[in-house]
Amino acid sequence: MFSHLVVAASLDTGDMLFYALCFILLMWLLKVVAWKPVNKMMQDRADKISNDIDSAEQSREEAAQLAQQRQKALANSRQEATSIVDSAKKQGQQQRDGILAQAQTDAQSLKENAQKDIEQERQDALSSVRNDVADLSIEIASKIIQKELSADDQKALIDSYIEGLGKQHES
C-alpha cells in the first residue's frame, strides 16, 4: 500500500508542477491582458471621482460667493432705495414748505392790497359824498338864502359840517 502511495505521489508531483506552471503562466497572462486594463480603469475612475469632488467643492464655493454677492447687492439696493425715498421725502417737505410760505406771502399781500383798496374806496366814497353834500348844500342854501355863496365859502361850511358828522359817527 505504501508503494501505491509513492507512485501516486510521484504522479501527483509531476502533475502539480504542470499545474503550477500553468497557473503561473495563467497569472502572467491575466496580469498582462486583464490586470493592467482593470487597474488603469480603476485609477481613471478614482481620478474622475476625485475631479468630480473637487469640481463640486469649487462649484459650492462659487455658489456661496455668488449668494454672498447677491446679499451684498440686495443690501446695497435696499440702502439706495431708502436713501432715494428719504431724499424724495426731504424734497417734498421742502417744496411743501416753500409752497406754504409762498401762499402765506401771497395771502398777506392780497390782504394788504385789499385793505389798501378798501381804504381808497372809503376815501373815494367820502370824497364823493362830500362833493354831493356840498352840491346839495349849495343848492339848499341858495334856495333858502336866495343868494349865491362863493364856492370856497360853501366848501369850508360843508367840510366843517362833515367833520362834525365824522366826530359824531366815530364816537
Automatic annotation (TrEMBL):
It is a single-pass membrane protein. Residues 64-75 have a biased composition (Low complexity). It is found in: Cell membrane; Endomembrane system. Keywords: ATP synthesis, Cell membrane, CF(0), Hydrogen ion transport, Ion transport, Membrane, Transmembrane, Transmembrane helix, Transport. Residues 54-126 are annotated as: Disordered. The keyword Ion transport applies. The chain crosses the membrane at residues 16-35. Residues 54-63, 113-124 have a biased composition (Basic and acidic residues). InterPro entries: ATP_synth_B-like_membr_sf, ATP_synth_b/b'su_bac/chlpt, ATP_synth_F0_bsu_bac, ATP_synthase_B_chain. Pfam families: ATP-synt_B (PF00430). Belongs to the ATPase B chain family. F(1)F(0) ATP synthase produces ATP from ADP in the presence of a proton or sodium gradient. F-type ATPases consist of two structural domains, F(1) containing the extramembraneous catalytic core and F(0) containing the membrane proton channel, linked together by a central stalk and a peripheral stalk. During catalysis, ATP synthesis in the catalytic domain of F(1) is coupled via a rotary mechanism of the central stalk subunits to proton translocation. Component of the F(0) channel, it forms part of the peripheral stalk, linking F(1) to F(0). NCBIfam families: ATP_synt_b. F-type ATPases have 2 components, F(1) - the catalytic core - and F(0) - the membrane proton channel. F(1) has five subunits: alpha(3), beta(3), gamma(1), delta(1), epsilon(1). F(0) has three main subunits: a(1), b(2) and c(10-14). The alpha and beta chains form an alternating ring which encloses part of the gamma chain. F(1) is attached to F(0) by a central stalk formed by the gamma and epsilon chains, while a peripheral stalk is formed by the delta and b chains. This is ATP synthase subunit b. It comes from Secundilactobacillus folii.
